[in-house]
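Predict the holo structure. Ligand: nickel (II) ion.
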Amino acid sequence: MIRPILLHPDSRLKKKAVNIENIDDALINLAEDMMETMYDAPGIGLAAPQVGILERLIVMDCAKKEDEDPDPFIMVNPIITTSSEEKNVYEEGCLSIPEHFAEITRPEVIQVEWVDLEGKQHTQEFDGLKSTCVQHEIDHLNGKLFIDYLGPMKRQLITRKMQKFKREKLRGEE
Ligand code: NI
């Protein structure tokens, strides 16, 4: 089932998500819905708070070219255990802030630990786009958006445009 994606500004996107204690049917269902919602958008990553669930769950698939095989990840309680000194810059976007993009600098290589839906522990190193994507999604679990890395002027400009976009969207739905 495709779930509606919350749009910035929304107080739920600013809250810290809680650790997941039990992998139950509701969580598996949520992960499936998030994957479907992400592919439908389309996007390369989605965090549970973006669908209004304040739990530490993210999904991603950075294989975006048509000839690439799908490369899905579902991460429960992901944590970054190491980050490289070397930085990387990517132009980031966000499904909660559609049509706005900005170059963001982040550590180039990270090591991530997470649990999968079978309760199995994983440790993996990521670089390139996947590294940026995991960091962006884990930020969502901590109530942080990519625009929080920008200066106040740029951030306020995007926020004002998003407020207007949301008002117009609401009017269109009436
Ligand atoms: Ni995002």
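The pocket of nickel (II) ion is lined by residues 94-96, 136, 140 (CB under 6 Å). The chain has a mean pLDDT of 96.
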